[in-house]
Write a structure and sequence with these properties.
Strands 3-2-1-4-5-7-6 form a seven-stranded mixed beta sheet. The chain has one domain: Vaccinia Virus protein VP39 (Rossmann fold, 3-Layer(aba) Sandwich). Strand 2, helix 3 and strand 3 form a beta-alpha-beta unit. The longest helix is centred in the last third of the chain and has 17 residues. It contains six helices and seven strands; from the N terminus they run H-H-E-E-H-E-E-H-E-H-H-E-E. By secondary structure, it is of the alpha/beta class.
Amino acid sequence: MGFYDRHIVPRINDKLGSGPEADRYRKQVLAPAHGRVLEIGFGTGLNAPHYPPEVEQVVALDTNPGVEGLARKRIALAPVPIEFLLASGEELRFADRSFDTVVTTLVLCSIPAVERALAEIRRVLKPKGCYLFMEHGLADDPGVRKWQHRLNPVQMFLAGGCRIDRDVRGLLDAAGFRFEALEQFYYPKAPRPAAFTTLGRASAMS
């Protein structure tokens, strides 16, 4: 991992992912979180202030050591206990059915083996657990999709491997998740190729 990805990308993402609008969506997606929680792609800890009191503990994973300084500042102020680990979501070192809740927000776009990560989420999620997600990806408008495919190489270069053309709903369907709540919308004030957002709650189908 080079200097740009380690030190610059986390600060860009922190700036783009902050603000009142972002906080509102983060609070919304995290509202059902409870029990023992695994968050994959914790980043600089923007979700940390929004975990509800029903959460007993958050195990927070990220692969980028450059996020740790900012993340630990938010962990210190979080309303729930958070343990930060440098680790990948593609090979989770946890037992089967060991988490009540799994969370990803704006991270599936940048996981190289995203199908493997989703399979791991299913594996560690308890039978009655919930997977909470807010992810940007492939739009529902053919015109926007065309621009997403065109701009994707530039996006990946500038944003640490982040893709803007992944079909989030299709990926979750294929991974065997059942949607219990689902919204798809264009994120306010964001450029349309990067704005199509899928937010919701899912459980693992048996």
